[in-house]
From TrEMBL:
Belongs to the glycosyl hydrolase 51 family. It catalyses: Hydrolysis of terminal non-reducing alpha-L-arabinofuranoside residues in alpha-L-arabinosides. Homohexamer; trimer of dimers. Residues 306-496 form the Alpha-L-arabinofuranosidase C-terminal domain. Keywords: Carbohydrate metabolism, Glycosidase, Hydrolase. InterPro entries: Alpha-L-AF_C, ASD1_cat, GH, Glyco_hydro_b. It comes from the Bacteria. Its EC number is 3.2.1.55. It comes from Kribbella speibonae. This is non-reducing end alpha-L-arabinofuranosidase. The keyword Oxidoreductase does not apply. The lineage of its organism: Bacteria, Bacillati, Actinomycetota, Actinomycetes, Propionibacteriales.
């Protein structure tokens, strides 16, 4: 027999806007994300435009992908952008020391990335090289991409076939400077971030949104060092307008870094521990937000989670440095939990980027060299949640929740969030119970629904995943939405995610 939960939604109390950029993506020169994923080359039999794989573009356009972060990740801090422009035959190769120690031919560079963003309709998020680069190198990259008129970098861009500048709003000042980006102390990096930000100039109408490379998980000391470098505690002054956001990274790793576990073969205990770790991102977001509120009470500095997602052991027989993993229904629930947290903290959290888009970690898409393409369960969560883009967050209260005792701590088995835009509301619901169905009463307050519809994502088991031969093992289906005295009622199967759309 299904248990019951009541979810109260205040439809007449719209809160902060949920930025569409919370649904951002990440593409690193890592494994088969770029080569074989996004890019197959102009001579490939797989349909492409300028070497960019068109079935990948089509699938991602269906997500209304808002931004794409590139070229890394750890790779960003060994990437020198001038090696990736001009005729491909003249581009020098390099060794990707971080990911598989493979040779990189630089055939996918700045112009190819910008062409990809134009095909996707996505805003570019360029991550610059602080670890092994220079201030001048990054400053010239900004000039090359965004300056009009005449200058050395503009002339070089035009010689490479692009007359008009691009709009490139988002710029990362290095990546994981505490680790692969240089193993720096927080204070040393904070000084570099100020220096780099000073020389990353706005050109014309392209206004830069500079993002300082922030902490791993809940390292508040790192965040505070960055805040101290542009503000002061309780002084009442606005932060220096050097960088406009601070990032952090948070991965859902249920095991240890040495033994992360399988993406598709896991126990019930592994399942619960994974979702508990995913839920803990809320504690981390709250901690960074509270610290930022002390130094920046007007919330002029954004918080950016530009790497998040599950991290499992690679699939057997694949290169350990390529981070190729399958993607099961469990991963979809990790995504749905994260988005509920993002929606609740939309006033401070302004951008997030799942790691990564194609063939790496918690990917949207898995491809093969024969033209096969698979939409993962995580892809479907992104697609089902599109209605939250730039909508106003609504207060949601889970009443009469169901819980599970995990090591003496009550773990919530129901997660929900909601938003409103243009006379429509979207409610996202997750039933984390792996075995039991859940009846959910949507207690609609402050307004009523004139029309409703639902969609459901579930599978035969949490370990289920999609393949080229079975692409819809985990795919959305219609969900029955019934009237109820308090509003509406739906029944969620075990381990499922659902959205309910309301016309108000």
């Amino acid at each position: 027999m299904a248990s019951t939960a009541r979810v109260a939604i205040d439809l007449d109390v719209p809160g902060p806007t949920i930025s569409r950029h919370l649904y951002g993506h990440f593409a690193e020169h890592l494994g088969r994300c770029i080569y074989g994923g996004f890019y197959v080359g102009e001579d490939s039999p797989i349909p492409n435009e300028g070497g960019i794989r068109l079935d990948v573009v089509e699938a991602l356009r269906a997500l209304d992908i808002p931004n794409l972060r590139w070229p890394g990740g750890c790779f960003a801090d060994e990437y020198h952008w001038k090696d990736g422009i001009g005729p491909k035959a003249d581009r020098p190769s390099m060794v990707n020391t971080h990911w598989g120690n493979v040779e990189e031919n630089n055939h996918f560079g700045t112009h190819e990335f910008m062409a990809l963003c134009e095909l996707l309709g996505a805003a570019p998020y360029v991550n610059g090289n602080v670890g092994s680069g220079t201030v001048r190198e990054m400053s010239e990259w900004v000039e090359y991409l965004t300056r009009d008129g005449d200058s050395p970098m503009v002339r070089q861009r035009k010689a490479n076939g692009r007359d008009e500048p691009w709009q490139v709003p988002f710029w990362g000042i290095g990546n994981e400077a505490w680790g692969c980006g240089g193993n720096l102390r927080a204070e040393a990096y904070a000084d570099l971030a100020r220096q780099y930000a000073t020389f990353l100039k706005d050109h014309g109408d392209n206004k830069l949104y500079r993002i300082a490379a922030g902490a791993s998980d809940d390292d508040l000391n790192w965040t505070e060092a960055l805040l101290k470098s542009i503000s002061c505690l309780g002084c009442g002054r606005d932060p220096k307008n050097l960088y406009q956001a601070i990032s952090f990274h948070y991965y859902t790793v249920a095991g240890t870094w040495e033994n992360k576990g399988s993406a598709t073969e896991f126990s019930l205990d592994d399942y619960y521990r994974t979702l508990s770790k995913a839920q803990d991102v809320e504690r981390v977001v709250r901690a960074h937000s509270a610290l930022m509120d002390a130094y920046d009470p007007e919330r002029k500095i954004g918080l950016v989670l530009d790497e998040w997602g599950t991290w499992w052991d690679v699939e057997p027989g694949t290169n350990p440095g390529f981070l190729y993993q399958q993607n099961a229904m469990r991963d979809a629930l990790v995504a749905s939990l994260h988005f509920d947290v993002f929606h609740r903290h939309a006033e401070r959290l302004v951008m997030a980027n799942i790691a990564q888009t194609v063939n790496v970690l918690q990917a949207m898409l898995l491809t093969d060299d024969d033209g096969g393409l698979v939409r993962t369960p995580t892809y479907h969560v992104f697609e089902m949640n599109k209605g939250h883009h730039d909508a106003r967050s609504l207060p949601v209260h889970v009443i009469e929740p169901t819980t599970y005792d995990l090591d003496g701590k009550a773990m919530d088995l129901v997660s929900a969030s909601a938003s409103v835009k243009d006379g429509r509301a979207l409610v996202s619901l997750s039933n984390l119970d792996p075995d039991a169905a859940l009846d959910v009463v949507l207690d609609l307050r402050g307004a009523s629904s004139r029309e409703s519809s639902g969609r459901l994502l579930t599978a035969s088991k949490p370990q289920a995943y999609n393949t080229v031969t079975d692409p819809d093992a985990v795919a959305p289906v219609p969900l029955v939405v019934e009237p109820e005295p308090r509003g509406l009622r739906v029944t969620l199967p075990p381990h499922s995610f659902a959205t309910v759309s309301l016309v108000l």
